[in-house]
Specification:
The protein is α/β, with parallel strands linked by helices. 34% of the residues lie in helices and 20% in strands. The strands form 6 sheets. A 6-stranded mixed beta sheet has the order 8-2-1-12-22-21, with helices on one face. β3 and β4 form a beta hairpin. The longest helix has 20 residues. The chain starts with 10 loop residues before the first strand and ends in a 6-residue tail after the last helix.
């Protein structure tokens, strides 16, 4: 029989102080649990929400937008509290210019129909994917060429191919995939888009604003209601759950905590890397299958600050279309990684900076280079594509999500391997209980959400889900005695 049977005495250790961990812990405390501790490997809270001061105000190194309104718990929380904190980013990622590697700016009359075909294929693909066995890349490629062929005004097929290659990188950044040909087509239907504006920015405050709401925090108390409950620089080495009455959580710094329940919000990338040594006894086969089958990709950002805004006022951004002969030269040079830098765009409330994106293996390689090498590479890219000169940057910043041992990537997607292994987020989310049904090990985080994986609102929902699991258990606890 368990010796700790109430909300007031149950010892709960939450691993990770990202949005899932913070959501779980704050909900548990609000419900009456008293012994809640968070172990955070980084020297800060927030996880893949990482807002920092930069240039004229702040930038988000991780999560940047609130994606959607209806059935989005983040947006609904703001609405419920009557907080006017987000607004549409506008047409930044629609009205960009397409520029070829010979410095030719593609006419809008040519670029816009190609953009429409590419981006309209995303919501319209649903029915066609219902019984589709291939990858999202194969499906979208086939659909793209069919619609290009049907255009009333014929488009140069070479240019159309260059645009498609860029679009595939753009969409891969949305998926966090190395390429679209590893993304499950049919499985993609499991991802739900929240209705409403999909790119809601946080004005000049950053995504950290939402964590402050969850924590009820302010500048004098950044951890808010979790004050004195978050242990920073506590990277978990091992979880020994062999004794259901006394789970032991050991950190790399030597500290050991005991618990009745552990909620693990560790990123999928970390689970992939160390699950075999992290859990004792080992995780069951179904959970290992989910860890191996799901994938956490790499998406990185660049932020470049200039003294003044120098680019044309009507440019919201640029995307790079490579001519085949230029691409061959690039691939045989030390700058090969620039192939996966698909574009640079304006940033809300930051008139003097440009934000760029890079994906996949080239992003992981970029992370291994020095900051000077990366900055010089980006400067070369601008000179290669732009007719006008680009001034020397005042400041440069790049992210390194894969290199960080506490993340090992950006966010999750369902791959063809996921389908082949007949697994998914539901297997990763399933709690490990005693024979009497008492939760011992629970799992939360964006990778554990069936429909909102890769999003902060999915992470928050998963944290609340696991908190509610314990709340329900302790409502029923007399029947377990």
């Amino acid at each position: 029989m368990a010796t700790r049977t109430s909300m007031e005495t149950a010892r709960i250790v939450v691993i990770g102080a990202g949005p899932a961990g913070i959501a779980a812990a704050t909900k548990l405390l609000a419900a009456g649990f008293r012994s809640v501790v968070l172990l955070e490997a980084e020297n800060r809270i927030g996880g893949r929400i990482y807002t920092i001061p930069f240039a004229d105000n702040v930038v988000d190194l991780g999560a940047q937008w609130c994606h959607g309104e209806k059935k989005n718990v983040i947006y609904e929380t703001l609405e419920r509290q009557k907080l006017d904190l987000v607004e549409s980013t506008g047409d930044v990622y629609d009205s960009y210019k397409c520029i070829r590697s010979n410095k030719e700016i593609v006419e809008d009359s040519v670029a816009e129909p190609l953009k429409a075909i590419a981006f309209n294929s995303i919501p319209e693909r649903q029915q066609g994917l219902l019984n589709y066995e291939g990858s999202l890349g194969a499906y979208l490629t086939e659909k793209y060429w069919a619609e290009v062929a049907a255009l009333p005004t014929k488009v140069d097929p070479v240019l159309a191919r260059e645009f498609l290659e860029n679009f595939k990188k753009f969409e891969s950044s949305v998926e966090a995939a190395d390429h679209l040909f590893e993304v499950s087509g049919k499985g993609h239907l499991e991802y739900w888009l929240c209705e409403g504006e999909l790119l809601l920015n946080w004005r000049d405050k950053g995504f950290k604003t939402f964590l402050d709401i969850l924590l009820k925090s302010d500048s004098s108390n950044p951890c808010g209601m979790l004050s004195h409950r978050v242990l920073l620089n506590h990277r978990v080495q091992n979880i020994d759950w062999s004794n259901p009455q006394n789970i032991k959580v050991k950190c790399f710094n030597g500290r050991v905590l005991t618990a009745d329940h552990v909620i693990c919000t560790t990123s999928l990338g970390v689970l992939k890397e160390i699950h075999s040594s992290m859990f004792q006894p080992a995780l069951p086969a179904s959970k290992v299958r989910a860890i191996e089958g799901l994938k956490l990709g790499t998406v990185d950002k660049f932020f470049i600050e200039f003294k003044d805004e120098f680019w044309p006022s009507d440019w919201t951004g640029v995307c790079f279309l490579w001519l085949e002969e230029d691409l061959k030269v690039l691939r045989n040079s030390d700058l090969f990684w620039l192939e996966s830098v698909f574009g640079f765009y304006r940033v809300s409330y930051q008139p003097r900076i440009l934000q760029g994106w890079i994906i996949g293996p080239h992003a992981r390689h970029m992370e291994s280079l020095s900051e000077e090498e990366v900055r010089d590479g980006i400067s070369w890219l601008f000179r290669k594509f732009l007719k006008f000169s680009v001034p020397e940057p005042q400041n440069f910043l790049r992210t390194q999500w894969f290199s960080n041992v506490n993340f090992r990537g950006s966010y999750t997607f369902r791959s063809l391997l996921t389908d082949e292994l007949r697994t998914g987020a539901w297997d990763l989310a399933a709690p490990l209980n005693t024979s009497e049904g008492r939760p011992l090990l629970q799992f939360a985080g964006e990778s554990t959400h069936n429909h909102y994986y890769s999003t902060v609102h999915g992470a928050v929902e998963s944290g609340w889900r696991e908190a509610e699991r314990l709340m329900e258990y302790y409502k029923m606890v007399p029947s377990h005695l």
